[in-house]
Fold:
Amino acid sequence: MKIDLTDTTASKINKALVKGRRAIGTPAVGMVLTLVIVTDEENAYDALKAANDASLEHPSRTLVVIKRVSRSPRDRTKSRLDAEVRVGADAGTGETVILRLYGEVSDHAQSVVLPLLLPDAPVVVWWSVDAPRDPAGDPLGALGQRRVTDSYAAEKPVEELKARAESYEPGDTDLAWARITPWRSMLAAALDQVDCEVVSVEVAGEEANPSVELLAMWLADRLHVHVRRAVSAGPGLTQVRLETTGGPITLHRSDGAMATLALPGQPDRAVALKRRETSELLAEELRRLDPDDTYASALRFGVDRLGGIQSASQRPEAATWTPGELPVRPVHDTPDPAAKPAGASASASAPASASAGEGDPGRPTPAQMPPVKKADPQ
Structure:
Protein backbone atom coordinates (compact mmCIF):
# COMPACT_ATOMS: atom_id res chain seq x y z
CA MET A 1 0.00 0.00 0.00
CA LYS A 2 1.29 3.45 -0.95
CA ILE A 3 0.17 6.84 0.34
CA ASP A 4 1.49 10.00 -1.36
CA LEU A 5 1.68 13.22 0.64
CA THR A 6 2.57 16.61 -0.87
CA ASP A 7 3.72 19.64 1.12
CA THR A 8 3.19 17.68 4.32
CA THR A 9 4.47 17.53 7.90
CA ALA A 10 5.91 14.86 10.19
CA SER A 11 2.60 14.69 12.07
CA LYS A 12 0.67 13.89 8.90
CA ILE A 13 3.24 11.26 7.94
CA ASN A 14 2.81 9.50 11.30
CA LYS A 15 -0.96 9.51 10.82
CA ALA A 16 -0.52 8.03 7.33
CA LEU A 17 1.61 5.23 8.79
CA VAL A 18 -1.10 4.35 11.31
CA LYS A 19 -3.75 4.51 8.59
CA GLY A 20 -1.72 2.22 6.33
CA ARG A 21 -1.10 -0.37 9.05
CA ARG A 22 -4.79 -0.50 9.90
CA ALA A 23 -5.73 -0.82 6.23
CA ILE A 24 -3.62 -3.97 5.82
CA GLY A 25 -4.72 -5.40 9.17
CA THR A 26 -1.47 -5.02 11.15
CA PRO A 27 -2.02 -2.16 13.62
CA ALA A 28 0.82 -3.29 15.91
CA VAL A 29 4.39 -2.14 15.34
CA GLY A 30 6.76 -5.13 15.21
CA MET A 31 9.96 -3.52 13.99
CA VAL A 32 13.33 -3.78 15.72
CA LEU A 33 15.08 -0.61 14.54
CA THR A 34 14.89 2.54 12.44
CA LEU A 35 17.10 2.65 9.36
CA VAL A 36 17.75 6.14 7.99
CA ILE A 37 19.08 6.13 4.42
CA VAL A 38 20.65 9.34 3.14
CA THR A 39 20.93 9.24 -0.64
CA ASP A 40 20.10 11.09 -3.85
CA GLU A 41 17.43 10.55 -6.47
CA GLU A 42 19.79 8.63 -8.76
CA ASN A 43 20.77 6.04 -6.16
CA ALA A 44 17.53 5.92 -4.16
CA TYR A 45 16.11 2.87 -5.97
CA ASP A 46 19.17 0.67 -5.41
CA ALA A 47 19.53 1.77 -1.78
CA LEU A 48 15.87 1.14 -1.04
CA LYS A 49 15.97 -2.28 -2.70
CA ALA A 50 18.96 -3.26 -0.58
CA ALA A 51 17.18 -2.05 2.57
CA ASN A 52 14.00 -3.98 1.69
CA ASP A 53 16.00 -7.17 1.17
CA ALA A 54 17.84 -6.63 4.45
CA SER A 55 14.51 -6.09 6.23
CA LEU A 56 13.71 -9.78 5.68
CA GLU A 57 16.26 -10.40 8.42
CA HIS A 58 15.77 -7.14 10.34
CA PRO A 59 12.20 -5.75 10.20
CA SER A 60 12.62 -2.00 10.38
CA ARG A 61 11.12 1.38 9.68
CA THR A 62 13.10 2.76 6.76
CA LEU A 63 13.32 6.52 6.32
CA VAL A 64 14.82 7.54 2.97
CA VAL A 65 16.09 11.14 3.00
CA ILE A 66 16.48 12.73 -0.44
CA LYS A 67 17.56 16.36 -0.54
CA ARG A 68 16.28 17.95 -3.74
CA VAL A 69 17.99 20.97 -5.24
CA SER A 70 15.59 23.63 -6.54
CA ARG A 71 16.39 25.16 -9.91
CA SER A 72 15.50 28.80 -9.28
CA PRO A 73 16.79 31.02 -6.44
CA ARG A 74 13.19 31.81 -5.47
CA ASP A 75 12.32 28.13 -5.00
CA ARG A 76 15.42 27.60 -2.88
CA THR A 77 14.03 29.92 -0.22
CA LYS A 78 10.76 27.98 -0.02
CA SER A 79 10.57 24.91 2.19
CA ARG A 80 8.53 21.89 1.18
CA LEU A 81 8.34 18.30 2.33
CA ASP A 82 6.89 15.57 0.13
CA ALA A 83 6.53 12.02 1.40
CA GLU A 84 5.66 8.60 0.06
CA VAL A 85 4.48 6.13 2.72
CA ARG A 86 4.75 2.42 1.95
CA VAL A 87 3.43 -0.40 4.12
CA GLY A 88 2.77 -4.07 3.52
CA ALA A 89 4.31 -5.84 0.53
CA ASP A 90 5.64 -2.56 -0.89
CA ALA A 91 7.92 -2.10 2.13
CA GLY A 92 9.42 -5.54 2.70
CA THR A 93 8.73 -6.76 6.22
CA GLY A 94 8.62 -3.27 7.74
CA GLU A 95 7.44 0.12 6.59
CA THR A 96 9.07 2.76 4.42
CA VAL A 97 8.82 6.53 4.21
CA ILE A 98 10.52 8.31 1.31
CA LEU A 99 11.15 11.94 2.26
CA ARG A 100 11.92 14.54 -0.41
CA LEU A 101 13.13 17.81 1.06
CA TYR A 102 13.04 21.08 -0.89
CA GLY A 103 14.45 24.48 -0.06
CA GLU A 104 15.67 25.47 3.37
CA VAL A 105 14.21 22.40 5.07
CA SER A 106 16.87 20.29 3.33
CA ASP A 107 19.43 21.90 5.64
CA HIS A 108 17.49 20.69 8.67
CA ALA A 109 16.73 17.09 7.73
CA GLN A 110 17.24 15.94 11.32
CA SER A 111 14.20 17.95 12.45
CA VAL A 112 12.07 16.08 9.92
CA VAL A 113 13.47 12.64 10.75
CA LEU A 114 13.42 12.92 14.55
CA PRO A 115 9.59 12.74 15.01
CA LEU A 116 9.46 9.69 12.71
CA LEU A 117 11.91 7.51 14.66
CA LEU A 118 10.53 4.43 16.37
CA PRO A 119 10.37 4.96 20.15
CA ASP A 120 12.83 2.95 22.27
CA ALA A 121 14.45 1.37 19.21
CA PRO A 122 18.03 1.70 17.94
CA VAL A 123 18.74 3.97 14.98
CA VAL A 124 21.15 3.17 12.15
CA VAL A 125 22.10 5.86 9.62
CA TRP A 126 23.42 4.73 6.22
CA TRP A 127 24.89 7.03 3.58
CA SER A 128 24.75 5.07 0.33
CA VAL A 129 26.65 7.88 -1.45
CA ASP A 130 28.29 11.19 -0.54
CA ALA A 131 28.94 10.42 3.12
CA PRO A 132 30.02 13.40 5.25
CA ARG A 133 33.65 13.65 6.27
CA ASP A 134 32.60 13.32 9.92
CA PRO A 135 29.57 10.98 10.14
CA ALA A 136 29.27 11.27 13.93
CA GLY A 137 29.31 15.07 13.74
CA ASP A 138 26.64 15.20 11.04
CA PRO A 139 23.19 16.22 12.38
CA LEU A 140 21.60 13.07 10.96
CA GLY A 141 24.50 10.89 12.07
CA ALA A 142 24.11 12.17 15.63
CA LEU A 143 20.70 10.45 15.75
CA GLY A 144 22.14 6.97 15.23
CA GLN A 145 23.90 4.41 17.39
CA ARG A 146 25.53 3.04 14.23
CA ARG A 147 26.68 5.05 11.22
CA VAL A 148 27.33 3.13 8.01
CA THR A 149 29.29 4.57 5.09
CA ASP A 150 30.56 3.03 1.85
CA SER A 151 34.01 4.25 0.85
CA TYR A 152 33.80 2.17 -2.34
CA ALA A 153 31.17 4.61 -3.65
CA ALA A 154 33.49 7.60 -3.19
CA GLU A 155 35.41 9.20 -6.04
CA LYS A 156 38.70 8.48 -4.26
CA PRO A 157 38.01 5.38 -2.14
CA VAL A 158 41.39 5.09 -0.44
CA GLU A 159 41.45 8.76 0.49
CA GLU A 160 37.94 8.26 1.86
CA LEU A 161 39.33 5.63 4.21
CA LYS A 162 41.83 8.16 5.51
CA ALA A 163 38.97 10.57 6.23
CA ARG A 164 37.08 7.79 8.03
CA ALA A 165 40.10 7.18 10.27
CA GLU A 166 40.60 10.85 11.10
CA SER A 167 36.97 11.32 12.17
CA TYR A 168 36.33 7.86 13.64
CA GLU A 169 33.94 7.62 16.58
CA PRO A 170 32.64 4.41 18.22
CA GLY A 171 29.66 3.25 16.18
CA ASP A 172 31.17 4.13 12.78
CA THR A 173 31.59 1.36 10.20
CA ASP A 174 32.00 0.98 6.46
CA LEU A 175 30.63 -1.53 3.96
CA ALA A 176 34.18 -1.97 2.65
CA TRP A 177 34.90 -3.67 5.99
CA ALA A 178 31.88 -5.97 5.68
CA ARG A 179 33.07 -7.04 2.22
CA ILE A 180 36.18 -8.69 3.68
CA THR A 181 34.45 -10.62 6.48
CA PRO A 182 34.57 -13.95 4.56
CA TRP A 183 38.26 -13.38 3.78
CA ARG A 184 39.09 -12.66 7.41
CA SER A 185 37.18 -15.72 8.59
CA MET A 186 38.85 -17.98 6.02
CA LEU A 187 42.36 -16.73 6.81
CA ALA A 188 41.83 -17.08 10.56
CA ALA A 189 40.54 -20.64 10.08
CA ALA A 190 43.52 -21.48 7.86
CA LEU A 191 46.02 -20.28 10.47
CA ASP A 192 44.27 -22.36 13.13
CA GLN A 193 45.07 -25.50 11.11
CA VAL A 194 48.85 -25.05 11.06
CA ASP A 195 51.48 -24.71 13.77
CA CYS A 196 53.82 -22.09 12.39
CA GLU A 197 54.87 -18.47 12.58
CA VAL A 198 53.86 -15.88 9.98
CA VAL A 199 56.86 -14.04 8.55
CA SER A 200 55.34 -11.76 5.89
CA VAL A 201 52.10 -11.18 3.99
CA GLU A 202 51.19 -10.20 0.45
CA VAL A 203 47.70 -8.92 -0.47
CA ALA A 204 46.64 -8.57 -4.12
CA GLY A 205 43.57 -6.79 -5.45
CA GLU A 206 42.17 -4.07 -7.66
CA GLU A 207 43.67 -0.63 -7.81
CA ALA A 208 42.17 1.83 -5.29
CA ASN A 209 39.91 -0.77 -3.69
CA PRO A 210 39.26 0.16 -0.04
CA SER A 211 38.51 -3.43 0.96
CA VAL A 212 41.97 -4.53 -0.19
CA GLU A 213 43.57 -1.75 1.85
CA LEU A 214 41.49 -2.63 4.92
CA LEU A 215 42.44 -6.30 4.71
CA ALA A 216 46.13 -5.36 4.47
CA MET A 217 45.78 -3.06 7.50
CA TRP A 218 43.96 -5.74 9.49
CA LEU A 219 46.63 -8.37 8.77
CA ALA A 220 49.45 -5.98 9.63
CA ASP A 221 47.72 -4.93 12.84
CA ARG A 222 46.90 -8.46 13.98
CA LEU A 223 50.02 -10.33 12.87
CA HIS A 224 52.52 -7.49 13.38
CA VAL A 225 54.44 -8.43 10.25
CA HIS A 226 55.46 -6.70 7.03
CA VAL A 227 52.52 -6.54 4.58
CA ARG A 228 52.97 -5.80 0.89
CA ARG A 229 50.17 -4.56 -1.37
CA ALA A 230 50.03 -5.96 -4.93
CA VAL A 231 47.91 -4.65 -7.79
CA SER A 232 45.86 -7.12 -9.84
CA ALA A 233 43.11 -6.91 -12.44
CA GLY A 234 40.45 -8.01 -9.95
CA PRO A 235 37.61 -8.41 -9.47
CA GLY A 236 38.00 -7.00 -5.97
CA LEU A 237 40.35 -8.98 -3.76
CA THR A 238 42.17 -11.72 -5.64
CA GLN A 239 44.89 -13.21 -3.43
CA VAL A 240 46.42 -13.30 0.03
CA ARG A 241 49.75 -15.06 0.51
CA LEU A 242 51.10 -15.70 4.00
CA GLU A 243 54.77 -16.66 4.19
CA THR A 244 55.24 -18.82 7.28
CA THR A 245 58.03 -20.87 8.83
CA GLY A 246 56.17 -24.00 7.68
CA GLY A 247 55.62 -22.87 4.09
CA PRO A 248 53.31 -20.49 2.22
CA ILE A 249 49.55 -20.27 2.84
CA THR A 250 47.67 -18.96 -0.19
CA LEU A 251 44.04 -17.96 -0.65
CA HIS A 252 43.44 -17.14 -4.32
CA ARG A 253 40.20 -16.05 -6.02
CA SER A 254 40.12 -15.26 -9.73
CA ASP A 255 36.43 -15.20 -10.67
CA GLY A 256 34.73 -13.45 -7.75
CA ALA A 257 32.90 -16.62 -6.68
CA MET A 258 35.18 -19.57 -5.82
CA ALA A 259 38.62 -19.48 -4.23
CA THR A 260 41.45 -21.96 -3.78
CA LEU A 261 43.02 -22.43 -0.34
CA ALA A 262 46.51 -23.93 -0.27
CA LEU A 263 48.07 -25.02 3.03
CA PRO A 264 51.55 -26.53 3.57
CA GLY A 265 51.48 -30.32 3.36
CA GLN A 266 47.78 -30.45 2.44
CA PRO A 267 45.99 -30.75 -0.92
CA ASP A 268 44.48 -27.60 -2.38
CA ARG A 269 40.79 -27.15 -1.65
CA ALA A 270 38.05 -25.09 -3.28
CA VAL A 271 36.11 -22.76 -0.96
CA ALA A 272 33.10 -20.52 -1.59
CA LEU A 273 34.13 -16.87 -1.46
CA LYS A 274 31.66 -14.99 -3.61
CA ARG A 275 31.30 -11.24 -3.84
CA ARG A 276 28.19 -10.29 -1.89
CA GLU A 277 25.35 -7.93 -2.74
CA THR A 278 24.81 -4.65 -0.89
CA SER A 279 21.75 -6.07 0.87
CA GLU A 280 23.85 -8.86 2.39
CA LEU A 281 26.48 -6.38 3.55
CA LEU A 282 23.85 -4.13 5.09
CA ALA A 283 22.17 -7.06 6.84
CA GLU A 284 25.53 -8.02 8.36
CA GLU A 285 26.05 -4.52 9.72
CA LEU A 286 22.57 -4.51 11.25
CA ARG A 287 23.29 -7.70 13.19
CA ARG A 288 25.50 -5.87 15.65
CA LEU A 289 24.80 -2.41 16.98
CA ASP A 290 27.75 -2.12 19.35
CA PRO A 291 31.04 -0.47 18.30
CA ASP A 292 33.29 -2.63 16.12
CA ASP A 293 36.62 -2.48 17.91
CA THR A 294 38.39 -4.68 15.35
CA TYR A 295 37.45 -2.32 12.53
CA ALA A 296 38.58 0.66 14.60
CA SER A 297 41.95 -0.93 15.30
CA ALA A 298 42.59 -1.77 11.64
CA LEU A 299 41.49 1.69 10.51
CA ARG A 300 43.73 3.50 13.00
CA PHE A 301 46.68 1.32 12.13
CA GLY A 302 46.71 2.39 8.50
CA VAL A 303 45.60 6.00 8.59
CA ASP A 304 49.11 7.40 8.19
CA ARG A 305 50.07 4.90 5.49
CA LEU A 306 47.43 5.72 2.89
CA GLY A 307 48.87 8.94 1.49
CA GLY A 308 50.62 9.35 -1.83
CA ILE A 309 48.64 6.75 -3.74
CA GLN A 310 49.68 6.74 -7.40
CA SER A 311 47.53 5.84 -10.37
CA ALA A 312 48.06 2.63 -12.30
CA SER A 313 49.58 4.53 -15.23
CA GLN A 314 52.20 6.02 -12.92
CA ARG A 315 53.25 2.66 -11.49
CA PRO A 316 55.10 0.41 -13.91
CA GLU A 317 54.45 -2.63 -11.75
CA ALA A 318 50.69 -2.19 -12.16
CA ALA A 319 50.83 -2.69 -15.92
CA THR A 320 51.07 -6.49 -15.84
CA TRP A 321 50.28 -9.12 -13.27
CA THR A 322 50.41 -12.88 -13.11
CA PRO A 323 49.59 -15.15 -10.14
CA GLY A 324 53.13 -16.48 -10.09
CA GLU A 325 54.88 -13.11 -9.86
CA LEU A 326 53.09 -10.33 -8.02
CA PRO A 327 54.19 -6.73 -8.59
CA VAL A 328 54.15 -5.15 -5.18
CA ARG A 329 54.44 -1.83 -3.46
CA PRO A 330 55.01 -1.63 0.32
CA VAL A 331 52.23 0.09 2.24
CA HIS A 332 53.00 -1.16 5.75
CA ASP A 333 56.37 -0.75 7.39
CA THR A 334 56.03 -2.74 10.58
CA PRO A 335 58.91 -3.76 12.86
CA ASP A 336 61.32 -6.42 11.68
CA PRO A 337 59.82 -9.87 12.39
CA ALA A 338 63.18 -10.95 13.79
CA ALA A 339 62.88 -8.26 16.44
CA LYS A 340 59.25 -8.97 17.31
CA PRO A 341 57.98 -12.49 16.57
CA ALA A 342 54.79 -12.61 14.56
CA GLY A 343 51.73 -14.22 16.02
CA ALA A 344 50.52 -17.59 14.73
CA SER A 345 46.93 -16.57 14.23
CA ALA A 346 45.03 -13.70 12.71
CA SER A 347 43.58 -12.84 16.10
CA ALA A 348 46.97 -12.21 17.73
CA SER A 349 47.18 -8.98 19.65
CA ALA A 350 49.11 -6.02 18.29
CA PRO A 351 49.01 -2.42 19.47
CA ALA A 352 47.46 0.07 17.11
CA SER A 353 50.04 2.53 15.88
CA ALA A 354 49.76 6.22 16.50
CA SER A 355 48.39 8.19 13.60
CA ALA A 356 48.67 11.82 12.70
CA GLY A 357 45.18 12.60 11.49
CA GLU A 358 44.13 16.24 11.50
CA GLY A 359 40.51 16.19 12.57
CA ASP A 360 38.38 18.48 14.74
CA PRO A 361 40.63 20.39 17.17
CA GLY A 362 38.18 19.64 19.98
CA ARG A 363 38.21 15.92 19.33
CA PRO A 364 41.18 13.65 20.16
CA THR A 365 43.01 12.26 17.17
CA PRO A 366 43.11 8.48 16.67
CA ALA A 367 46.58 8.49 18.19
CA GLN A 368 45.21 10.02 21.38
CA MET A 369 42.29 7.64 21.66
CA PRO A 370 42.49 4.80 24.20
CA PRO A 371 43.61 1.44 22.79
CA VAL A 372 40.79 -0.75 21.59
CA LYS A 373 40.12 -4.25 22.74
CA LYS A 374 41.20 -6.86 20.20
CA ALA A 375 38.53 -9.35 19.18
CA ASP A 376 38.46 -12.54 17.12
CA PRO A 377 37.43 -11.91 13.49
CA GLN A 378 34.66 -14.49 13.71
Observations:
- The chain has two domains: 2-149, 179-283+320-345.
